[in-house]
Amino acid sequence: MKVRKVPMRMCLGCQEMKPKKELIRIVRTPEGSVELDATGRRNGRGAYLCPQIGCLRTAVKARRIQKALGVEVAPDLITELEGKLATS
Q1: Is the pTM above the cut of 0.85?
Q2: Can you tell me the mean pLDDT for 60-74?
Q3: Structure confidence at residue 88 (pLDDT)
Q4: CA 38 to CA 53: how far, in whole Å?
Q5: Does residue 18 surpass a pLDDT of 80?
Q6: H-assigned helices in the chain
Q7: 9-87 — its CATH code?
């Protein structure tokens, strides 16, 4: 039996490597819009965050999301992320 390698990604907030399935993906689509990617498979440049509000706030404060995606992130996306993290 072959053991598969678990894909690891770095959280923009805490800067820790974690399994990809545990993180939330934010994607900049080829059209230039920034959206949440629930499937983790959408086309575009991706960035990952832990499902914790502290990591989101750290990433926003340090402007890591903007740096990773190369575009300005709309405040409504940040609000949507905060809402999603508060419910989980």
Answers
A1: yes
A2: 94
A3: 66
A4: 17
A5: yes
A6: 53-61, 64-69, 75-87
A7: 3.30.1230.10
